Amino acid sequence: MTDFADWTLQDATDALGKLEAGVLASSRFYDGDHWQGGDAWIGPRPATGEIGAEAVRLEIQRALVSKNAVREVVTRHQGALLGHEPDWDLTLARGLADGEQPTPEEQALIDEAGAALTTWWDARGVHSSLRTAVARVLWAGRSCLRLYVPSGLLNEQGRVPLGTLTESLDRLFLDDPLPAQADVVRDSATHRQAGIYLYREGVTDYAELVSVDVTNGETVLRIVGNTAESEQRAPLPLGGRLTIFALRRDPIITPQVRQQQMLLNLAKTMLGRNVVMGGFLERIILNAQLPGTITEDATTKKKTFVPDPLRLGAGTTNILAGLPITDEAGRVTGYATPSIVYRDPVPVTTFEDTARSAYLGILEETQQLYAAIAGDATASGESRAQARADFTLSLGDTLAQVEQAGRWLIETALAMAAAFSGVPGRYDGLRATFACRVDTGPITADEQDQTRQNVAAGLLAEETGMARIGVQDVDAEKTKIAAQRETAQQSQQSNASAILGRAGLLASQVRADTPPAQDGGASA
Predict the structure, then answer these.
(1) Which of 68-77, 151-160, 321-330 has the highest mean pLDDT?
(2) ∠ CA(248), CA(254), CA(258), 5° rounding?
(3) What residue ranges in 383-438 does DSSP mark as E strands?
(4) 3-state SS record for 309-335
(5) 504-514 pLDDT, tens per residue?
(6) Rounded mean pLDDT of the chain?
(7) How many whole angstroms separate alpha carbon 416 and alpha carbon 427?
(8) What is the pLDDT of residue 90?
(9) Cα separation, 163 vs 241, whole angstroms
(10) How much is the pLDDT for 522?
(11) 88 vs 79, 198, 406, 466, 468, CA distance in Å?
(12) What is 234-293 written as a DSSP string?
């Protein structure tokens, strides 16, 4: 059985482990380092130890042309889930019967917590931290979120000062540490979990260890350093939650994606090299004597030919003479016929096709081929819809992790703030709801028509249909539509009243202008 309370800095470091070489390469690709000390170059290179090898490598690095497709596919996946602010709310942990509403006291508690959390969410930039965590889990396979109170905000006793809910939340910060810094580990025998966060202050390494005490269910946080001593913070009643959460999924940047990225960079680099070859054609002069002058040494009377540099470019003229042909006695018997041979560059389509093939391979490997099909005039609407559906399905693993992280974040922040406010457990009767607003980009006109038909047929909820056709804030849009309909109804009623009023006025005028009927009998 693992006792996390006895762990040292070395134990934490060993449990965290090191990132694999492939993950580190993915990280560098994502950050824009596509040279990686030469490891990411798959083209020809000089042999190690060869004379001038270092100069050649520097020239290759200087001429490297890259397209960051790794970052593109990660950003597209991330944006589909968190391109918009997620929807979150608080509700009761207890079940409600059909038609039952929270009591006034319960609703007041929900409103109190929701208002404070909304302010904290915006102030801490939670949406941005979630996006960062998602990007990292896509290339590393894991990433973490960490709630903490900076040491500078603790009192002299090393504790969080007592305050209101808003004040306590204001002392709480959200961190998105690198995958190499943090993780949540599990004991295989007991399934107990512990959060690990490694950091350095000055030249000293530390580990923040957070676990749950099995005797009372409280969350315990310890700071351990290089020495045997450790600092233990006051236990917190957080309902068995850790202050570190780990997102996990299989990375979408696989070895195959990295291979295709390197091929893409090679093709782009060779394309640039081909531009140079096409603009500065290589020429070979055969059987020709370059222009120059003959100098004679005053002492030895030895004659030496000094060639002039070949002038190139518009408006230049070079006169070349054929090389002399001599016999055994050294007499000139004739002159060779000079010629020039040009080496044409490789057709540019070779590199363009290679680059496109590698780029499509990356999109296909990450289920994002729809991004290329969208601009293909020859692709059918059905193929686009199928490719988009494949991408939407691929979001499932990440979506589950993000929504779980969102619920943990809201509930844990609320529990920590309650403990710091001196009312631990005040919000235990509430639970968080969290939903990403998935957006895979604009849909086609055919897909919009199909969505409208499904809504009209009752096969799809109106809210779902609005979200599918690109409405970002469905509730706000419905409110606007209802307001417009009410305004239109009032306008119609006003117009109808005006018409009826005019009709009544006209009728009264007609009655006033009509003479009274005369009696048909004879007068006396």
Answers:
(1) 68-77
(2) 135
(3) 430-435
(4) CCCCCCCCCCCCEECEEECCCCCEEEE
(5) 666 666 666 66
(6) 87
(7) 10
(8) 96
(9) 22
(10) 43
(11) 18, 31, 8, 19, 19
(12) PPB--TT--SEEEEE---SS-HHHHHHHHHHHHHHHHHHHHHHHHHS-EEEEESEEPSEE
Specify the DSSP class assigned to residue 5: G
Cα distances (Å, whole numbers) of residue 520 to 47, 319, 516, 523, 524: 131, 132, 12, 9, 13
State how beta strands 303-307 and 292-296 pair: antiparallel
Structure tokens at 78: 């991330």
265/440 Cα distance (integer angstroms):
27
| Element containing residue 159 per DSSP (H, E) | none
- Which of 349, 343, 209, 345 has the alpha carbon at shortest distance from 283? 343
190 contacts: CB under 8 Å, gap ≥ 6: 1, 2
For residue 305, the one-letter residue type is: F
CA 395 → CA 351, 374, 443, distances in Å? 32, 19, 17
Cα–Cα distance for residue pair 305/291, rounded to 1 Å:
10
Contacts of 18 by beta carbon, 8 Å cutoff, 6+ apart: 180
Task: Give the pLDDT confidence score for residue 49 in this predicted structure.
Answer: 77
CB 72 within 8 A of CB 31: no
Q: Cα-flanking dihedrals φ and ψ of residue 328, to 5°?
A: -65, -25
User: What CA–CA distance (Å, rounded) separates 125 from 148?
Assistant: 15
Give the span between the Cα atoms of 412 and 402, in whole angstroms: 15
- Residue 46's Cβ-side half-sphere holds a number of Cα atoms within 13 Å equal to 14
Give me the helix-helix angle, 445-456 and 381-394, nearest 10°: 70
Residue 207: the pLDDT is 95
Per-residue pLDDT band for 2 (boundaries 50, 70, 90) equals: low
DSSP H/E element including 436? none
Residue type, 500: L
CA atoms within 13 A on the CB side of 440: 23
By C-alpha distance, which of 163, 88, 75 is closest to 122? 88
- pLDDT score of 479: 85
| Phi and psi torsions of 97, nearest 5° | -70, 165
* pTM score of the predicted model: 0.79
User: Predicted confidence band at 429 (pLDDT cuts at 50, 70, 90)?
Assistant: very high
Render pLDDT for 463-507 as a digit per residue (tens, 0 to 9).
Answer: 878 877 777 677 778 888 888 888 888 878 877 777 777 766 666
Q: Is 425 left (phi over 0), alpha (psi -120 to 50) or beta?
A: left
- How far is 83 from 128, CA to CA, in rounded Å? 10
